[in-house]
Amino acid sequence: MGSERRRLSDRQTGAMTVVAAGARFEGRLSGKGAVIVSGQVIGECDFAGTVTIADGGHWEGRLHADDVMIAGRVAGDVVARGRVEMGQRAQVTGTVTGLSVAIAEGAVIEGELRAGARGEDAPVVFSEKRHR
What we know:
Elements: H1 8-11, E1 16-19, E2 24-32, E3 34-37, E4 40-53, E5 58-60, E6 63-70, E7 73-75, E8 78-80, E9 83-86, E10 91-93, E11 96-98, E12 100-104, E13 108-110, E14 113-115, E15 124-126
Parallel strand pairs: 1-3, 2-4, 3-4, 4-5, 4-6, 5-7, 6-8, 6-9, 7-10, 8-11, 9-12, 10-13, 11-14, 12-15
């Protein structure tokens, strides 16, 4: 694999927008860069960059970004222009769409899954190797 970084979290650089644990944001979030949600967001998002819903984080509404990593809960549609990664404790109620979708064993999707430019690529399934 060389120097290529496999996971989205390994590729994140630069400043980040953070919704910390215990914090709540309501409204529309837009911009570019990385976003990490450890608290609660109610609203919609169109972000040029990676949006991460951390373990314990909760997003309610439409989430649209370049790449999306989910370890927490999402109630709404997830649309990634690139990759979606779902960790073993991820829970999504809604449609998950991305050019590629990686789903760890234990993740839950209650809704549709659409992967690939034309929906024809099978999702990539991986086992979470990091232990908490």
